[in-house]
Amino acid sequence: MTAVLECRDVTRRYDTPGGTVHALRGVSLTIARGEYVAIVGPSGSGKSTLLTLMGGLDRPSSGEVLVDGTPLAALRDRDLTRLRLRRLGFVFQRFHLLPVLTARENVELPMAEAGVPAAERRARADELLAYVGLAARAGHRATQLSGGEMQRVAVARALANRPALLLADEPTGELDAATGRGIMELFARLNADGTTIVVVTHDERLAAEARREIHMLDGRIEREAAGQGRA
Amino acid sequence: MRTALRDLLRHPLRSALAVLGIAVSAAMLLDMVMLSGGIDRSFASLLLARGYQVRVSPRGTLPFDSEATLGGLADVLRRLRADPDVAAAGPVLGTAVFGRGAADSAVVLFGYGVEPGAQGMYELERGADLAPDDSLGVLLSAPSAVRLGAGVGDTVVLAARLDPQVASASVERRLVVRGEVRWVYDYRDQPSVGTLLPVMQALAGEGARDAASAILVRVRDGADLAAATARLRAAVPEAEVRNVDDLVAVFRQRLVYFRQVATILGAVSLIVTVLLVGTLLTITVNERLGEIATLRAIGIGTGRIVRGVVAEGALLTAAGGALGLALGLATARYLDAILTSFPGLPAAFSFFVARPDALLTAALVLAVTGTLAGAWPAWLAARAPIAATLRAEAT
Fold it and tell me: H-helix or E-strand containing B173?
């Protein structure tokens, strides 16, 4: 299988008044197309830092991150933004939908930025909202949705431009167990339909849905294991 | 723009207060713009109210700025009228007179002696104008008509001065009211009367014989005003000869402090607008850093984010500016009424002149200010580090 994402000996250091913090200490991994990977580990193990580097939201102190073979370090800020828009999808713990927009408008936003014609993006937004089970809530403002519904809209938004890779940071962290379960099922369905997913989570049940689990500790990959979601 | 509007409506009270603050600043800015240019224009327009572009007054004085008179009037008029570009030259004598009407009690009036055929001092409102040889007629202003209790067709008595020995006037004229006029340069409620120049000269006494306070000169259309003024100056070297541009320059010099105050207050209002819009948008952006970082994470360009913040500033400024426009016009009208009620100022004079260019200037300056005020918060929004901001949001 072809690699969607590669990390080659990636490190990330932060200089703080209390000294240098080594968040990542030489991480290498490859995510193949169609994989569903969960990155787990205790707080401070570097899993969220790794996700931000994979998504080009931050730059490594050393090492290299490649998306579809393109080294992110070679990209200017504007090109990195375009890559995030077209090749990557993000889902965050706190959803971060625009509260003044409707669910549909939130999903349309990345498409509008990508220059998709209005009629096409509306149709695609409705299709995605139907996919995540929110067709009836398309016209509701984000503030009128429950936490689970907001996260579903965030997933739909992340899929808007048909990304090569979906990156999710604690997507069930703000949700109750039942609602979180629905998001887990959605992710499983997405992967089954061909979306490559990397999810950072404390949630063991969500991690278990993945086909592959990467356990991190002290900025390093401690071990890898196959998840229950394997085919 | 629609999203920017919705963002502002997330905090309706805050946005409303900001709009009100901007409206007050905009009103002050508009008033100051109207004031700084309005005085000159109003003065020039007042001087040209009857189409007379040149004023001749006694040496070292401005027209009606002192009680000095210009002697040898007939000779001065002859020299002025000899100029080929002079279409009319009208002498005016201003003096204090006493008047008695129906009430039979003396009232103090301001008397104008004029030549009806060449006058730039009044506009007829009712009745008839004086005929060139009507030495028995008089024109009243509305305030003098009230004080004398007289109207068109009534007889009034004008007296020059009271003789302190006998408590009676040395010269008296019984005159018939021909018409009611509006004296262009009168201050509010000024009780003025007008007669033929020789009548007023007689009432003013021996010193006013063959004299006038000023001469108003109308240069024919198409003539070079500056050149004509220079020729007239040479023709009557014993007098001050100034055209409207000269008088406006003198007036502007006298009101230089007024203009400076207007400039300073206008600048203050702009600074207040920048601070208001900038503070509000900075608070808004800081509240939404997580949201903005997420937008950038999902690939929304900084251009769109910056445009959104700037659009919010523009909307606030537009709403505040529109409200400020109405407020500024109302305030200007109120202040104008107060300022023009000061004694000695012509009632037709305006300190605040609402001109399209003034409104446009204020609107443009305000729009630029509002946009610039949004630039700093927009820059903040665009430069916030994505990963660090999201990390801070999550903790």
Answer: strand B172-183
